Each structure stands twice: as C-alpha cells, then as structure tokens.
Amino acid sequence: MKAHVNGIELSYHIYGRGEPLVLLHGNGQNHGAMKRQIDVFRKEYQVIAVDSRGHGKSELGFRPLDFQVMALDILCLLDFLKIDRYRVIGYSDGGIIALEMAMYQPKRQVQMVVIGTNYDTSQIKWWANIFTFVGYLFSILLTPFSFFFRRVKAQMGLMIFHPHIKERDLARISAPMLAIIGEYDVISRTDTRNMVNLVQHGKMTVIHHGTHFLIRQKTRELHQVIVSFFDEDVT
C-alpha cells in the first residue's frame, strides 16, 4: 500500500490486529528486512511496516535526506491511518527515526525500542565509517549514470552526515525506551548508556555475542527482551 504524505509516496504494509506497532528498518533496507519481527509481533499487534523515504518502494523526493524529514513522514502516515498512540521498534537508522518521532510528539509514543542506534555520527566505530565513506564516494561517481545510485548516495550520506541529536532534546523523550545493543556492535556501548540516561525513562540491554545485525543474528533473544519490555505496565 502507498500513501501520499509529506510530499512523497510512502510505501507501507499492515499485518495483524491489535495495538499499533510501527516497525522501522535500517539504512539501505526495506520493510522486508524485518520479516522475522513482523511474523512474531503480528500475532498480538497491528504491525505497520514502512519503507522509509528513499528506501524500498518509497519515493526519495527532492528534499535532502535527513532523519527529521523521515520522522515527519512516519508521523504523517500515522495521521493518514488515523492512529493516535503507537509503539515502535526501530533498527539502526530506524531507531534514529523513532527518536526524532518521540521528540516531535512526545505524548504520542507509548513505548520505544531502538536496536543498534546512535544519536550522533561520532558514536559509530571508525572502521565501520571507512566502509560507509568508500561507498559514498563510489555512489557520487555513479550518480550521473543511474537514479539507483542517487538513492544510494542519499542513503550513504545519511550515515556519514547524520544524526546530530542534542542531549537536551533527548531529555524531552517521555515514553519508556529500551535500547538494545550487541556486545560487538558498531555502536558505542558507552554512548548508548548515556542515551538511556538522558531520556526520562530509559533502560539498556546488551545481547551477549551480538553484532549490529541482531534482527537476524539473535532473533530469539531479541524478541524475548522486547516482549518482556512491552509487557511492562506503562499506565
């Protein structure tokens, strides 16, 4: 399905029934990357799985790609679907979008789970940044020859130049937040701990032997942690 929101056609899929749960994928992916999460959570929730702006079947548009615009896309989609309150699971860049959504409309979010998520570009380990920068350079060279590489350039640029969320803005997030990170993630554990301390109700879980690819690598442990968090009383 597609909705015209915030100046673009945004692709989304709805699975199951129940309380709304938004799933947000990582950079360079689409909603299908979170198939295992869809299959688990559709049993109890109305899962809204979105292709973020410039990803999957969603349009890139003509604005520079940044997380603030992408967050507004999702909030506009929820308006279109007449959904007021929601839970959200954001993986990697999807987690950054979830953070931005919570800062825009703090009272709308019931609970938030972010997986392998940073709030500043400096929090990604240096060796991972090298691979991203090389991909960005290649995409610049190939952009004149293909629209595909225009999208790749925008996606790579998103990782290199964003985000830069201020700590005082994180303090505005009032919904209970769970930050999950792998033991060997490319995201700094120290910075993740700082993030959960900055929000009003944050907690952190480190998955033993986990990497940045927890949504496929450690799905059973990941889902157990998320289900336990969602079962907590948030009234």
From TrEMBL:
Please list the GO terms describing molecular function. Answer: triacylglycerol lipase activity
Domain (AB hydrolase-1): residue spans on this chain? 20-121
Superkingdom assignment: Bacteria
- Give UniProt keywords alphabetically: Membrane, Transmembrane, Transmembrane helix
Q: Pfam families per the record?
A: Abhydrolase_1
Question: Which sequence ranges are marked TM in the entry?
Answer: 126-149
* One GO biological process term: glycerolipid catabolic process
Keyword set includes NADP: no
The protein's name in its UniProt record: Esterase
Give the source lineage, highest ranks first.
Answer: Bacteria, Bacillati, Bacillota, Bacilli, Bacillales
